Amino acid sequence: MAVLAPVLAPVLAPVLAVVLAALGAALLFAALGRDPLACLHTLFIAPLADRNGWSELALKATPLLLCAIGIAVGVRANVWNIGAEGQFTMGAIAGGATALVLGPAGGWYVLPLVLLAGIAGGAAWGGVAALLRTRFNAHEILVTLMLSYVAIQVLGWLVRGPMQDPEGFNFPQSRLFDPSALLPALFEGGRVTVAAVFAVLTVPLGALLLGRTVMGYRLRVVGLAPGAARYAGFSERGAVWFCLLLSGGLAGLAGICEVAGPIGQLMPSISPGYGFAGIIVAFLGRLQPVGIVFASLLMALLYLGGESLQITQQLPLAATGVIQGMLLLFLLAADVLTLYRPRWVRRRAHG
Amino acid sequence: MDEVMIAALLVATLRAAAPLVLAGLGELVCERAGVLNLGVEGMMLVGAVVGFAATITTGSVWLGLVAAMLAGAAMAGVFAVLTLGLAANQVASGLALTIFGVGFSALFGAPYQGHPIPGLASVVFPDLSRAAPLVQQVLLIDPLVWLALAAPFVVARFLDRSRPGLILRAVGESHEVAHALGYKVLRIRTLATLFGGAMAGLGGAYLSLAYTPMWTENMVSGRGWIALALVVFSTWKPVMLALGAFLFGFVTIAGFQAEAWGIPLAPNLLATLPYLATILVLVLISRDTLRLKLNAPAALGKPFHPAG
Amino acid sequence: MASSARLAPPRLALRGIGKRFGVTVANDGIDLTVAAGEIHALLGENGAGKSTLVKIIYGVQQPDEGEILWDGVPVTMGDPNAARALGIGMVFQHFSLFETLTVAENIALGLASREPIAALSGRIAATAARYGLAVDPGRPVHHLSVGERQRVEILRCLLQEPKLLIMDEPTSVLTPQEVEGLFAMLRRLAAEGCSVLYISHKLAEIQALCDDATVLRAGRVVAQCNPRTTSPSHMAEMMIGRALAAAPPRVQSAPGAAVLVAEGLSLPAEDPFGTALRAVSFMLRGGEILGIAGVAGNGQKALLAALTGERPAPRAEDVTLAGVPVGRKGAAARRRAGLAAVPEERLGRSAVAELSLTENALLTGTEGDFAAHGFVRFPLLRRFARGVIDTFKVVAAGEAATAGSLSGGNMQKFIIGREMGHAPKVLIAAHPTWGVDVGAAQAIHQALRDMAAGGVGVLIISEDLDEILSLCDRIAVLHGGVLSPAQAVGTVTIDEIGLLMGGMAHAA
């Protein structure tokens, strides 16, 4: 046990949390008058029955993975970006505007510029929070969250105003992007785009950053012991800027990849809460890039299963939200039960 | 602008501020005990939907309010078990509570969506006909607004003048010292957290039972977070919190009035005003780090292990 | 023994008290008797089990075995309230005071009565006057000096009219003159019939004050003696378990060039509880050890931050390092220029508890040594960490062990070794032996002497006067953010230093 504990402990809590959340979900289904087993089957197994299901899984895991990696790097440095939803939206707006302007001209350069604009839009929205935190000490939790509400309203305004499709029968949406501004599909017949490749690439890059680089080391020290970071001369401001720009940029990339991918235009609602779910994914993945891959797949499965539940069992989509919330609550509890104990014993031994 | 319009504006401001005052006071007390509960938004949503459902089921708004307080407190109880019982990270737990609350309220509230109810009646005064129109208007506010006007002073008096209030502040200042002196840190913090949850539930129920009055998904729309920002803005002082909330109420109402006053602004942009105002207020108050440091409960957000 | 001859039962008697934490035995079969009106010393080095024992007496912790007799009657102390109800008062080494609350509020929180603050303030003033403990009941605690804070703690106990007062290392934060005042107060209290349990490892104090002494070592009672008739060296031997080897006389190297100079260094307080620095000037030469003494809270934190660059000074020429003005430079830049620092707190400050020793070695490692193109060169770093562990005999489960798993002394040895490994020109250490056992303290002092012998300028900032006097060549005193001129250690008396520490620089 003593040898196995360090290997098992990090995996134990998430697995326990998933099992508990599944049990909670079963109770919830029963309370709503459905057959729990059938519902669990619809939620976790049915979506993966065919090739298309796996493609959809990758499609939904992509933005979750992108958002969660950035959030996780931030939390490791004690920088809490909980406004990935807003940066996602701003990325979609900035990239979408670029697509609408440059798209008609065509050309190979359109898509790269669209993606860069998306990253820049998200990073800029994160940068506002970084500026307010470093210049004025305004806490990034509240600021990033408030900025999310603002971004969503701004998108709502744009698609009803300046960016509205003049031939769209007054629907609140933009023109469809030109093909030159759209991400190519990863394989024929599926909706998943090359964005999935970007997302997968962030995993080794994130792991390298946190585990091997001086920058990652500094971020970890800032997060674990701010006093030690000051002693060592590691800049806390630098960490705040780095984390918010990085996680904002990644969320922005996720946003533009959604609108320049499966959606293909701007509209008032472009995310079923990927930015917020990214927080759960980051924690479920233990703030480790590799863990986050598994967590984002699981969360994507929840989204898929939630949609199936809505169709086959007439359950509100909100059931997914409840299960997500339970997952995070159980994770935090399980975390403490599996990790806190050994630390507690150690503390006492030296007390 | 005549007297009646001013009165109407004043009443509208008070009504818009009331949920912020109620939820904010709860969080303020909780934070003064050293607990940072970022789940206010979730607790308000659950309070709103449970209060609404209970009102429809029982036919009594008052039972609805009680149910909302119990629901908010139950949510806070989950938070207390996690952060106080298991010493989990308070920031992450608060976020989890909000995420859960958003999902739960949407699911639980789906059947009640768009269902109209009479809402909370105002306090009946015997005869208002001879009073000035302004007074008539103002006295028509509902009991929870009266509560929101009185509660800040009650809470301030409790914190500053009573012995339980002193003990609560002491626990928020340093749990080690309070523990060393023999105070039950976790019990006091749990009570403060439950109070915060009940008040958030009440604030949420005000929205669904008096302000709107109806249930729509996600109807709290960030007010829980604004309440959290107001606690910082107030530098943890109840009366300041109420003043901040009235300011916010005014900004919200002024936004609605903008069009009537001939300032055209798209509805979506109008809706950003409270959030932008929150950021502005946070920036203005937080830049004075010295003042924050002097007033913030020193043990805010720090976990406490009684064994250590 | 004096107490057994009396007819009345002793005020406090412990029989076979035992307490363990996991595998660690903190207390093992401890017997202790304190008579009414007696000042009883509890003697032992860090980790001997003194703290655990007094926590048991005060009800903070529960014993696993044994019994406690109060006036001859067995009692259980479930919590401190129960202990206080019996008449036990305790003044902790780390004060149990709330910074932002007033003196009266702080005292009210320590009393069971619901007396209004106004009435209580009157009682506080009366008791304060009676025992010569001047404090203003209406002031917030963060405005008070350390000595005043201790008075608040003592007043809180006295207002409960205690029958037993426990004092945990009370003099480590006081000036020598304040110590005299404290002793007078304790003697008066004892004469009135209150027992005092006095915890310390300072032998001279115990000799001056106490009637009886119980010596603890490794959780057990190893001796009981009359401190007035037992020699300090014998008490030290009982405490440590062996004779202490005297430190070898220092080879005084010829003082070198000035390596660290502060010139009119002023810095505002960082927070409302801090002290500002006012025109601090000193010169540290290579090869010498300069000590900065002073009571806690007189600007030590600000001075350390200003010298290390954690808080840059207003002007570049405020701080000169090896001839280069570095006042505006941050901590990393000063470290590259040859400065090393060892702050008082270890975990969370000079080390990160959750990280391995290897990773902790990188904390102050300059990038040229341990990184290339932004990537950490872990093999080099591991070798360095292993070297420090071997050279300084750090007891650890290898370089992969987390910093949090080491004892305080071993962690401090690792940190000092790490800083020496960077071959600095100047080493600043704040109370380097704080919370460290005697063996490690000796090793740390020796390492510092060796560094000075090697030509490094060593600056010690410490509240422990004994440490400074035994280690340093010259001494300066920090009071209220003002630094006195440095004097050779041999040429000043304890009284003079005490007056400087009390801020009466020109009264002497």
Structure write-up:
The complex is a heterotrimer of chains A (351), B (308) and C (508). With 351 residues, chain A is mainly alpha-helical. Chain A has a single domain, classed as ABC transporter involved in vitamin B12 uptake, BtuC, CATH 1.10.3470. Helices cover 74% and strands 0% of the residues of chain A. Chain A has 13 helices and no strands. The longest helix of chain A is centred in the last third of the chain and has 33 residues, at 318-350. Chain A is globular, with a radius of gyration of 21 Å. Mean pLDDT of chain A is 90; it is low at 342-351. Chain B is an all-alpha fold and 308 residues long. Chain B has one domain: ABC transporter involved in vitamin B12 uptake, BtuC (Orthogonal Bundle). Chain B contains 13 helices and no strands. In chain B, helix 6 (143-161) crosses helix 7. The model of chain B has no long low-confidence stretch (mean pLDDT 89). By secondary structure, chain C is of the alpha/beta class. Chain C has a domain at 2-240: 3-Layer(aba) Sandwich (Rossmann fold). In chain C, strands 13, 16, 19, 20, 21, 22 and 23 form a 7-stranded mixed β-sheet that branches. The longest helix of chain C is centred in the middle third of the chain and has 16 residues, at 176-191. Residues 1-5 of chain C have low confidence and may be disordered. Chains in contact: A-B, A-C, B-C. Chains A and B meet through helix 5, helix 6, helix 11 and helix 13 of A and helix 3, helix 4, helix 10 and helix 12 of B.
